Amino acid sequence: xxxxxxxAHHERARFLADPLGLAGRRFLVTGGSRGLGREIVHxxxxxxxxxxxxxRRPEGLRRLEEDVAVTAAAPLYTQALDVTEPGRLEAFxxxxxxxxxxxxxxxxxxxxxxxxxxxxxxAADWAATFDINVVHAQRLVKAALPHxxxxxxxxxxxxxxxxxxxxxxxxxxxxxxxxxxxxxxSLANELGPDNIRVNAVSPGSMLIPGRRWARMQEQxxxxxxxxxxxxxxxQLVTPQEVARTVVFLLSPWSSGISGAHIPVDRVQNAPTPxxx
Length: 276
Description:
Blueprint: H1 3-17, E1 26-30, H2 35-46, E2 50-55, H3 58-68, E3 77-80, H4 88-100, E4 105-108, H5 123-150, E5 154-159, H6 171-191, E6 196-203, H7 212-219, H8 221-229, H9 239-250, E7 261-264
Parallel strand pairs: 1-2, 1-4, 2-3, 4-5, 5-6, 6-7
Helix pairs in contact: 2-9, 4-5, 5-6, 7-8
C-alpha cells in the first residue's frame, strides 16, 4: 500500500470511529440553555466533545445539565451570566478553558433585539441590540484567541439570521445580524494566519416550542399556513437542522471553510409573515 492509499485508509478508519472528529475536543457555546444553543450543546456532547455553556437563567442550565448527563463524555461546565455585562464573558471564557483544558472552538449564539420600529426605538435600543449580537460575538472571539492559539487553531461560528440579508421589521436587529456576516468574513482573513477559522450561520425562522412561530401555529393555524406556504416544502427549519451545520463547521471535516456565510432556511423568502 503506497503512502496515499495508506493515508486514505487511515482517514476512513478514523471517520468510522469518530465521524466528525469531535471526540475529546473542547467548545464554548453562549446562550446554550434553550432553542438553537441547546441543540448545539446536545450534538456536541453526543459527538464526545467537552462543552461549556452560559445563559442568563440558572434553571435552564440545570435542566440542560440533567438532560445531557447520561450521554456526556464529561460534565458540562455551565454558568449563569449576562454576556453583555462587562468582564463576565471574558472571565467565563478563561474559566471554561481552564476547566476543559483549552478550547478548540466557540459559538456566539446568544442574541436578541431591543425596541420596535424606527419611530419608537431609542438610541439605547439600537445600542443594546448591537451589544447582545455584534459586540458579544467580538468579545467572545477575542477572549478565546489565546486558548485557540495554544491549541494550534480552531473554529468560531457566529450565529446571524435570515434577517441579516433579507430585510424585515426591526431594522436594528437586521443591521446587527448583517454586521455578524461581515465580521465573520473580516475575522476569517485576520485570524487565518493563526489557523483560526471564522464562519457565520444564518438560520431561517425556526420552529421552537413556546416561541413565536410555535405559538402562531397553535393559536392562528391559518396565518401559520400562509406563512409557511412561501417556503418550498411548506415547513420552517428546525433548530436541529441548524445545529448540524454549526457542529459541522466546528469539526475538522470543515477545515477548508472559513469566511463563509451559510444560510439554513429552506430557501425561506422573508423573515416574517409580513414579507419585506
